[in-house]
Specification:
The complex is a heterodimer.
Chain A (H helix, E strand, L loop, with lengths): L1 E2 L4 E2 L40 H25 L3 H18 L9 H23 L4 H25 L7 H22 L4 H20 L1 H12 L2
Antiparallel strand pairs in A: 1-2
Helix pairs in contact in A: 1-2, 2-3, 3-4, 4-5, 4-6, 5-6, 6-7
Chain B lengths: L22 E3 L6 H5 L7 E8 L5 H11 L8 E5 L4 E5 L6 E3 L18 E6 L2 E7 L5 H18 L19 H4 L2 H5 L26 E8 H11 L3 H16 L7 E8 H5 L8 E8 L8 H8 L2 H5 L2 H16 L1 H4 L3 H14 L7 E8 L4 H4 L2 E8 L8 E7 L2 E8 L5 H12 L5 E4 L9
Helix pairs in contact in B: 2-3, 7-9, 7-15
The chains are: A mainly alpha, B alpha+beta.
Amino acid sequence: MRCRSCNIDLGEEYVRCPLCGEKASPDEPVLSGLRTAEYPDIKYRKNPKSAFLIYVIIYAILCSAAIVADLIINRRVSDSLWAVFLLPCVWAILFRPLFIHKLYIGSYIMQDAIYISVFMLWCAKSYMRDFSYAIYSGVPMICTISAVLIFVGIFLFPEKRVTALSYFIALFVIGLITLIISLACGYNCVLPAACTVSSNLFITVLAMLEPNEVRGELIARFRA
Amino acid sequence: MEITEEKTSAQNGVENDYVLPRRFPLDNAATIYPAARTNTYACTYRICFIMKEDVDPDILRQAAKDIIPRFPTFFAQLRAGLFWYYFEQTSDNDIVVEEPYYPCYRLKLLDSDKPAFRIIYYKRRLGVEVFHALGDGSSSINMLKTLVARYLTLKGENIPDDGSFPSLDDKPTEDEHADMFQRVYEKRLGKPEKETSSYQYKAKTIPNYFQAVHGIVPVSDIKAVSKPMGITLTEFLVANLLYAIYLNDPENRKEIKVSVPINLRPIFGVESLRNFSLFTNVGFVPKDGETTFDDIVASIKGKIKENAQRENMKKAVSRNVGSARNPLLRFTPNVIKRPLLKACYHLAGQSKFMCSLTNLGICEMPQEMLDHIDRMEVLLGGAPKETLACAVTCLNDMLNISFTGTTKEVSIQKNFFRLLSSNGIRVRVESSNKESWEDK
């Protein structure tokens, strides 16, 4: 086949020229012996983030509706803000575990620890008028539990053992910050110290189990 | 450090004990790709061979497994560090897939145990789709040649090792995996000249849409036209493309520029399986009257060669490496650095050219392999603003000119191939869009 307008050869399969859309004429091609390399029927694929965006929009609508209703009925927003923080926490604690892939369990635990910590800070500020309860008890407690869970995970999934290193480091840093604040403000230091020591201990155990891998991971992650 | 034509330890016959670390840093050119990636711009390209027979997926899977130890830098996944991204060698290397979506569809990065590339097959097509941070076109061609050689060997063919591709009998060398930009870098070199922005072709783009238009042209036909003009084959194609863009919008008076990648390996005499290429932009300013093809030829003649001189390339490399070595940038956390680099890439870098034309040159391999391959294709995954990209390869004395884009518009491609045929060059056109086919 050929396109007379463009003066080019086309494959046997073409009825129209892909460039100008003119009807292909059944002339002998000038370049002989070439066969069309077929493409599959292309399936359209949506952007993977579109579903996430829909969830965010639904969440935003629900939150806005709750805040507006609270303002109209109670002339304040504190109860509806509860709902705004509660929704992601309900999601994180009740529904997210259903979607956990065993290879990324540490990542899920870390993200949930962050959700819950933020929620605790907000509760402490809103209902106890003081961050201190969250700083010396809630946050270090949830971080210690997370560190223990991840530590158990490194024995259940030894192939992903080294990825736990960055989580332990993050938990160690959070523990250290809460410990410094607690010391400076004269709060109870038991839970912040437990979080710092346990994370540090788990890093040491991991380094003993996989010395070369831990060294390589540290160099790669913190190379500037 | 000056790079000379020194032989590698393997070539010198010295025993090679080098082992690539499980985690290794990105090379200097690769650092931009993880940041530049968007939902619709995958920073991926495809290189494939069109075989003479349908591909056997089981044999291909075995061949893919066999080449893993020879190409460890490719079988790696991107990971995020505190300051920079890095690569980690992967454990799940089952990456042979029947072509599923559009060419160059985005690869799963970061949260994946599979490498940042895939091996695709569909009927006679056998190729790789590679995340650009892993390596440039030259390195991917080398890997693909080794893969195809292994595939044919497993099929019972006798493929000799003539040195035209990395042999599976050799061990990987440190030079193949090194970041060559760091070796070329010199601190006190002048900065390259500042560039003006280019005319941009505006066409309606479709997210996740990808169209490839291939032109198959005999090399002898193009050389017969370009030689009397005193220009190289690449210059002729660049001039042709610039003229095709100009004809698409003759009213435009802004400079039209095309980006041409330069392979630095022959310039610095090194063999690398990572990124080791840079871009140079060439173009012309349309005149107030009618601009002719000869005007464009006169404007770009010798420009690519001049820009690709060793000293100019060294300046460009030193600027890029120098920026990456800036302490302020080095110690900025990745979460801050990523959006900054992304903004720089999309706002500044992309405006300097309208589209890119990469000529990967003649693909050399033993005749025993050529007997099983019809032709070769390279598809560039265009950048978001870049609605058109062009890649050229040569196999069996046939040039394959592939245009890719995220738009259904083909006016520039039409101008380009019509200009070739008006010069007496024989052209065959194929498209990934099957709307022009029978019963479609």
